[in-house]
Design a protein that fits this description.
Elements: H1 9-36, H2 41-60, H3 64-82, H4 91-114, H5 123-136, H6 146-149, H7 165-168, E1 176-183, H8 190-201, E2 207-211, H9 221-228, E3 230-235, H10 240-249, E4 253-259, H11 261-267, E5 285-287, H12 302-310, H13 312-335, H14 346-367, H15 378-402, E6 403-405, H16 407-424, E7 428-433, E8 438-440, H17 441-462, H18 466-471, E9 478-487, E10 490-497, H19 504-513, H20 526-531, H21 553-563, E11 567-573, E12 577-585, E13 590-598, E14 601-606, E15 610-614, E16 622-624, E17 630-634, E18 637-643, H22 644-647, E19 661-666, E20 671-676, E21 678-686, E22 704-709, E23 715-719, H23 721-726
Parallel strand pairs: 7-9, 14-23, 18-20
Antiparallel strand pairs: 1-3, 1-4, 2-3, 4-5, 6-8, 9-10, 10-12, 11-12, 13-14, 13-21, 15-19, 16-17, 17-18, 19-20, 22-23
Length: 728
C-alpha cells in the first residue's frame, strides 16, 4: 500500500478529482476519433497532455503502477505526434489498449478512494505499449526489456529520436537552466502545484532545485509563489527542449520566463543560487497565455541577441500551447465573461441542502403558528411574503449548485455500446440528445446503473447481427438512442433502439415457464406483457452469458428507479424496436406535496404521483370484485380502491365512500385510487429518511418513503405511489 502523508490529503483529493475528469475527457476523445477513423492533431496533443499530467501527478504521490502505465501511453503518442502516419500501422490495437489503460486507471482511482490501496499489476499493459512503440518505429518488439526498465524509467522511450543536446540548446552536462514559472490566477494550492511541477521535471533532469525550497512543506509559500513566481534551477538534462516542454504541458501554468543568474540575485538576494549555476540566457523569454508580437528591446545588450537565437527553438515549441490558450481566451472574450470554477466536497453541499430544508421547515412553523390563528397582521403578512420569496430563491440557488448535466453519464454509455459491439460482433452506435439537461447529483448517481443495464439489454437482446439486419432490410449499423428533457419538475429519459422489439407471446410463454404469471395469459395486455421483463428472475436468454441470463438486470432497473421516486414505461413494436421511458424527479430533498388526512393522521402524497382527485356522489359507482375488493369506473377504466385507514389501521372520521375523497394515483404500469377523509392543501415539504432502526419493518414496501415535519411541529408520513399500487 502507498501511504499518503496527512499533509498531502488535499493533494490526493485533487489528484482523484482531476484524474477522473481527464479520463472522462480521454474516453470522449477516443470514442470520437475511433468513429472518425483518425485522430486530429489537437486530440493527439490533448491525449499527450492528459497522460503526461497523470504520469507526473501519480509519480508525485508514489503511485508507481499508474505513473509507469501513463508514461507508456505517453511514449506511444509522442511517436504519433512526431509522425502521424505511424498511427495507421496500429490503429485498432492502439485504441483497444488505451481503452484498457483508461479502465485500469479508473479501477486504481476507485481503489485509492476506498482506502487500503494495494497497486494492481499493469506490467502486461505496459509491455503491450512498449511492443506497440517498437512496431511503430520499425523495430523488433523487446518485451523482455520492459520488466527491467519500466519501473524506474525516467526518460521517454523515444528519447533517441530527439536532437542532440548541443544542437538543441547548446548546453553541456554541467549547465543549469533557470526558469521562473507563474501559475494561473486563483488556481489555489500553488505550493502543491509547484511540488508537482518539480516532480515532473525530475523525470528529465538530474537535479532540480527551487526557490522557495521544498514548497510543499509550508502552505505559506503559496503567497510568495503567487507574488514572485516559482524559480526552478535544472541541471543534468540532455536537452533544454525537454525541460521547456515539461513546463509547457504542466497544469495551471500561466507563463514562464528563462532567467539569468544576475537577474535572480538582483530580485531575490536572500536566496542563494547553487554554486554550479552559470548564466543560461540573460534576456528573459516569456510565453503568455495569449500570443503577442515580441517587441524588440530598446537597448539590447550583445548577449541578449545571442540568447534570443539560442532560445528560439523552445519559444517555437511553446507556440501550439500558446495558440490553444489564445483560442480559449478569444472564445471567453467573445462571451464577455470570465469563468471561475471551484471544486466543493459533496458532503458540504448535502449539509447546505439540509440547512435549507430546516429553514423551509422553520418558515412553515412561523407562518402556521397556532398563536397567530385568527389575527389580522398586515405587516407580519408582508414580512412573511418577503421571507418566502428569499427562501424560495435560496432553495433554487442551492439546488442549482447540486445540479449536474447528464452528458458525463451519457458518455459512459458510449463506452458500453462500443465494447459490447466489439465482443458480440455487432455494429451499433449510441446517439444522444439532451446531454446538457441538468439533474441533482444524488439522482444522477442513482440512475447510472439503470441506464447501464438498459443499454446492455438493448445491445444483447435487441440489436441484431449485421447480416440479420441487412436481411430484414435494415441498415447494418444499429442505433441505440438515449435522450433527456426537462418537463416541469421532472426529467424524462428515453432509452430506445431500432432492434427486434419485444414479442408479447414469447414473454408470456417464458413467464409461464418460470411460474411468474398471476392471471391467465389471455387476460394480459401487450403493455402488461412488456412489464414482465421487470420481474425478478425473468430472462429470455437460454444460457447465462457475460451480459445477461441471470434475470436480475431489469429488476434492478425498476427497483433503483422507484427508489428515487421515478417510474418506467415500456413501448415496443415487434421487428422495429423498443423504448423505455423513465420519469424521475429533479431532486429528492424538497418536494411539492398534497397533504391529506385520515382521522387525526396527516399523510403527504407527492404532487407528481397524483393524476386527479374527486368525490363519489353515487355509491353505485363502486364495483365489488369477486374477492370483495372495491373498484370504480373512471373514464372507461376500472381502477382498484385502496382505503388508507384499513391499510394503516387508523381510526377514520368517515368510512362512507361518498363522505371522503378519492385521489387517483399512477406509476409506470398502472393506476389506482386511494380513499382519504379530506385534502388539506398543497405544501412544500422537506423529505426526511426514516431512522435506521425502522429498516427492519420494511416501510418502503408498505407504501411509505419517508417523513416530513409540518408547520405545527407534527410529523407527516410521505406516501409512495409505486409501493401503494404494487400492494393492490
Amino acid at each position: 500500500m502507498n501511504d499518503v502523508d496527512t499533509g498531502m490529503e488535499s493533494l490526493l483529493e485533487a489528484f482523484i478529482y482531476e484524474t477522473n475528469e481527464m479520463l472522462d475527457q480521454l474516453d470522449e476523445i477516443l470514442l470520437e476519433s475511433e468513429k472518425e477513423k483518425t485522430i486530429s492533431e489537437n486530440n493527439i496533443n490533448s491525449i499527450f497532455r492528459i497522460t503526461h499530467t497523470i504520469k507526473g501527478s501519480a509519480a508525485m504521490l508514489e503511485f508507481d503502477e499508474m505513473s509507469t502505465l501513463a508514461h507508456a501511453v505517453e511514449d506511444v503518442f509522442y511517436i504519433i505526434r512526431e509522425d502521424i502516419s505511424k498511427l495507421d500501422i496500429v490503429f485498432d490495437e492502439l485504441f483497444d489498449l488505451v481503452f484498457q489503460s483508461s479502465d485500469f486507471l479508473r479501477k486504481e482511482i476507485t481503489a485509492v478512494q476506498a482506502g487500503n490501496y494495494t497497486p494492481s499489476d499493469a506490467s502486461a499493459l505496459i509491455s503491450s505499449f512498449h511492443n506497440l512503440a517498437a512496431v511503430m518505429k520499425g523495430e523488433e518488439p523487446a518485451a523482455q526489456q520492459v520488466a527491467e526498465n519500466a519501473p524506474q524509467q525516467e526518460q521517454p522511450a523515444v528519447v533517441e529520436e530527439q536532437p542532440a543536446p548541443v544542437a538543441t540548446g547548446g548546453h553541456e552536462a554541467g549547465d543549469v537552466l533557470q526558469v521562473r514559472v507563474f501559475f494561473q490566477d486563483g488556481c489555489q494550492m500553488e505550493n502543491m502545484r509547484s511540488f508537482m511541477l518539480i516532480s515532473q521535471l525530475k523525470g528529465c533532469c538530474g537535479t532540480v532545485e527551487s526557490i522557495p525550497d521544498h514548497p510543499e512543506r509550508d502552505a505559506a509559500t503559496s503567497a510568495e509563489i503567487v507574488k514572485n513566481g516559482l524559480v526552478v534551477c535544472c541541471s543534468g538534462f540532455d536537452s533544454e527542449d525537454d525541460v521547456i516542454k515539461v513546463i509547457e504541458q504542466a497544469l495551471n501554468i500561466k507563463s514562464y520566463e528563462v532567467i539569468s543568474e544576475g537577474e535572480l540575485s538582483a530580485e531575490q538576494p536572500q536566496q542563494e543560487v547553487p554554486a554550479s549555476t552559470t548564466p543560461a540566457t540573460p534576456q528573459p523569454e516569456k510565453v503568455e497565455e495569449k500570443p503577442a508580437v515580441q517587441a524588440e528591446p530598446v537597448a539590447p545588450q550583445p548577449k541578449a541577441k545571442q540568447a534570443t537565437v539560442e532560445t528560439s527553438k523552445p519559444a517555437a515549441s511553446a507556440q501550439p500551447a500558446a495558440s490553444a490558450a489564445a483560442n480559449a481566451n478569444a472564445n471567453a472574450a467573445k462571451a464577455g465573461v470570465k469563468q471561475s470554477l471551484i471544486s466543493v466536497n459533496q458532503s458540504k453541499l448535502d449539509h447546505l441542502m439540509d440547512l435549507v430544508g430546516e429553514i423551509v421547515t422553520a418558515e412553515s412553523m412561523v407562518v402556521r403558528d397556532p398563536d397567530l390563528e385568527g389575527l389580522r397582521l398586515d405587516h407580519f403578512t408582508k414580512s412573511v411574503r418577503e421571507l418566502r420569496k428569499l427562501t424560495d430563491e435560496l432553495q433554487d440557488v442551492v439546488m442549482s449548485i447540486r445540479m449536474l448535466p447528464l452528458h458525463g453519464t451519457f458518455q459512459k454509455m458510449s463506452r458500453i455500446v462500443r465494447d459490447m459491439a466489439k465482443k458480440l460482433g455487432k455494429q451499433a452506435e449510441l446517439v444522444t440528445y439532451g446531454g446538457d439537461t441538468e439533474i441533482d447529483k444524488t439522482i444522477n448517481d442513482a440512475i447510472a446503473d439503470p441506464l447501464m443495464h438498459m443499454i446492455r439489454n438493448s445491445m444483447d437482446h435487441a440489436i441484431e447481427l449485421p447480416e440479420e439486419r441487412v436481411a430484414m432490410g435494415k441498415p447494418a449499423m444499429g442505433k441505440v438512442m438515449l435522450s433527456a428533457r426537462n418537463v416541469g419538475g421532472e426529467i424524462l429519459l428515453d432509452v430506445s433502439d431500432d432492434g427486434c422489439g419485444l414479442d408479447p407471446k414469447k414473454l408470456l410463454a417464458k413467464a409461464r415457464e418460470k411460474g411468474l404469471l398471476v392471471k391467465p395469459e389471455s387476460e394480459y395486455t401487450d403493455k402488461e406483457a412488456y412489464q414482465l421483463i421487470m420481474l425478478a428472475g425473468f430472462s429470455t436468454n437460454q444460457e447465462v452469458t457475460e451480459y445477461s441470463g441471470r434475470g436480475v438486470g431489469m429488476d434492478v432497473v425498476r427497483k433503483n428507479i422507484e427508489k428515487v421516486g421515478g417510474s418506467i414505461v415500456i413501448h415496443s413494436e415487434l421487428g422495429k424496436g423498443t423504448t423505455f421511458s423513465i420519469k424521475i424527479p429533479l431532486t429528492l430533498a424538497i418536494v411539492d406535496g398534497m397533504n391529506l388526512s385520515v382521522g387525526d393522521t396527516v399523510l403527504t402524497l407527492p404532487i407528481t404521483s397524483i393524476k386527479q382527485s374527486f368525490k363519489v356522489t353515487d355509491p353505485e359507482q363502486i364495483i365489488r370484485n369477486s374477492n370483495g375488493s372495491e373498484m370504480i369506473m373512471v373514464r372507461g377504466e376500472c381502477l382498484p380502491i385502496l382505503r388508507l385507514h384499513e391499510m394503516y389501521q387508523i381510526e377514520p372520521k368517515c368510512t362512507n365512500i361518498t363522505d371522503g375523497i378519492l385521489i387517483q394515483i399512477e406509476n409506470s404500469s398502472a393506476n389506482a385510487c386511494i380513499f382519504a377523509d379530506e385534502l388539506l392543501g398543497e405544501y412544500q415539504v422537506v423529505v426526511k429518511p426514516f431512522p435506521k432502526f425502522f429498516n427492519k419493518y420494511d416501510l418502503k414496501s408498505q407504501g411509505l418513503s419517508g417523513c416530513s415535519i409540518l408547520g405545527d411541529g407534527t410529523v407527516s408520513l410521505i406516501l409512495d405511489a409505486n409501493a401503494l399500487i404494487n400492494n393492490l
